[in-house]
Amino acid sequence: MTAREAQVASRRRIAGAEAWKLADAEYRRMLELIRTLGDGDWTRPTDCAAWDVRAMLGHLVGAVEGWARPIELIHQYRVGAKLLRSGEAGGHLPVDGANAVQVRDRADATTADLIARYERATPGALRWRRRLCWIPVSMQDDGGRFTMRELFEVILTRDTWMHRVDITRATGREMTLTPEHDGRIVADCVVDWAKKHGRPFSLVLGGPAGGRFDVGTGAPHVEIDAIEFVRALSGRGVREEILGTRVVF
Fold first, then answer.
1. pTM of whole model > 0.85?
2. Burial class (CB in 10 A: 0-12, 13-18, 19+), 17
């Protein structure tokens, strides 16, 4: 292994105490963002084509309420399976059906009520994420296979973070970004991506959440904003895939 390879290979994946610190901080950053939104923001389209900002809020609240109350989570997936079979939910994965239920069940709530519910549910969501992360099961997604531990420690935080990107883009807000928090999430995405494709690369990510990442020699050099790079890994943006590889969000 060369010194340049070690730059990526030696980076630790997010796990354990760090995972919960990042998860708590990301829930708080999302809450701070949605509290700033006004009447003119809720109908703005997002990068998730089926959702405007209001629908995305319904999804976010439904997700934390599901993780905070397992019986609610079971309801979402049970009804979601019916919506998938009937064609009432887009997509093809069980999570697509659950997402549709989250949005549908909260369509009549006021935005003020949903914001309050988000704040109430996040502590419980964190508790149950910690309790359930030891389930010895893996699942498949468009971005690849993942374990329950990866889901609860990393992916759910990554998903919330990406929706924070979606909302700031849709509403013209400036996204709060720090190297310690957002940079750590971005770096973990890079390491996950590098492990999946296994090829050399030289990558410079711009902005407060960015950095330089290298593996191997003689690889193509890519410079891109950190947020745009991670959007690409999620299937958003003009580069739907980087080196033909996505990661799970």
1. yes
2. exposed
